[in-house]
From TrEMBL:
Residues 21-342 form the FAD/NAD(P)-binding domain. InterPro entries: Class-I_Pyr_Nuc-Dis_Oxidored (IPR050151), FAD/NAD-bd_sf (IPR036188), FAD/NAD-binding_dom (IPR023753), FAD/NAD-linked_Rdtase_dimer_sf (IPR016156), Pyr_nuc-diS_OxRdtase (IPR001100), Pyr_nucl-diS_OxRdtase_dimer (IPR004099). It is an enzyme of class 1 (oxidoreductase). Its EC number is 1.-.-.-. It holds the Pfam family Pyr_redox_2. Belongs to the class-I pyridine nucleotide-disulfide oxidoreductase family. GO terms for molecular function: oxidoreductase activity. Its cofactor is FAD. This is NAD(P)/FAD-dependent oxidoreductase.
Amino acid sequence: MTDRPADTDAYHADATDTGTFDVVVIGAGPPGENLAERTQAAGLRTVLVERALVGGECSYWACMPSKALLRPPAALAAARAVPGARAAAHGSLAVDEVLASRNAFASGWQDDGQVSWLASVGVELVRGQGRLTGPRTVVVTTPEGSERRLVARQAVALCTGSRATLPELPGMAEARPWSSREATSAGQVPDRLAVVGGGVVGVEMAAAWRALGARVTLLARGPRLLPRWEPFAGELVAEGLARSGVEVRTGASVSALRRPDEAGPVVLDVSGGNAVIADEVLFATGRRAGTENLGLDAVGLTPGDWLDTDETLRVRGVPGDWLYAVGDVTHRAMLTHQGKYQARIAAAAIAARAGGAPVDDGPWGRHAATADQRAVPQVVFTDPEAASVGSTLEQAEAAGLRVRAVDYDLGSVAGALLYAEGYRGRARIVVDLDREVLVGATFVGSGAGELLHAATVAVAGEVPIARLWHAVPSFPTMSEIWLRLLETYRG
């Protein structure tokens, strides 16, 4: 397992060497942390390189702080929807408490706890910017400006995530826009907030800051919100945002920005509509690969590109098959839980290859990230929530499958009647008619995220409809929607 490979001379030590490891991981977000933990547990000496905070984007500027902002208004809305409870739910959110809770969820933007955890599982941490300089070789520029050379016997894994990208528009620099980072970490509520982008980040942050008291205008370039989802998901989320007081404008493209006074408001010129004036503007319009400073050119790859991987997460086009990539940087499924899934797959594959064991990389094999293509779950934490897994109807048809969509009013099941008065929601399953298995499911409604894992199991497990018929949902719960969908399918 620890033999030095014959295809590189990178193991000749010099004064800058810090030693030779089995696995070198660059990037200590959740994918990198999980991969490092698992390779270390498999007996492969692993070092983790991080230039910023251990825990990455998810811990400090994405999943954790954003959900801390979104949970209080969701809890308040749920109480207001239930007769007998709404009397206790009058008033507004305690903004200072919400922001303090958000800060705690982000650990005060300190990574001491994550660093302690790494030490507890035996993974060594090196602080600094890591870059490839040749086969299995990483040079780290430390915060002090010195360089340390790390050499991998088995594998180097790139887990450096993605970065928010801003469009090139006139006036962008003077406008000083928020990215997703500022949107989840801001310490004060702006009086007026413009949100540009109708995807997940855009709708969630519009919901969060509106609940905290900002007057929010959401500008989406396309005809609907959540364009990659089933159409009804975007429609119901837009209705929910509008009910909360968000001004939702679709078909609205920003052509220029102005902030004439450095301390004054931003003016957004909007094609085909009135200008928008806001105190802050959030652009949630896309991400780019975090690969610009990794030395990819040293191994024949293009800096700044997404990394193309096989099913075991090895980067294609690198001689020797020693380079892996996990998480957002692969552009496979840019979600924390999928990055951690990929880390489990990659770590198992690295360990198998290091030990000379067979690699099971067929569909749904132990060393294949099949779920990235077939069973990716995602929840949008707005009110109503939107939850989906697998393919939409449009995606399934584009893939050449013979499918049928089955819809049902989520508000008509008994559990919904208890959940909230006037509950609004919708559910859809997409059935492969040739195999009679689910290839996709979408639920929109309050609490819909809690319905998702059952659908994920059905899609990933390719459970036959005939067998699902025997999975009896408890009454009266929201899960009764499964019975209603299957009854509708069977006719």
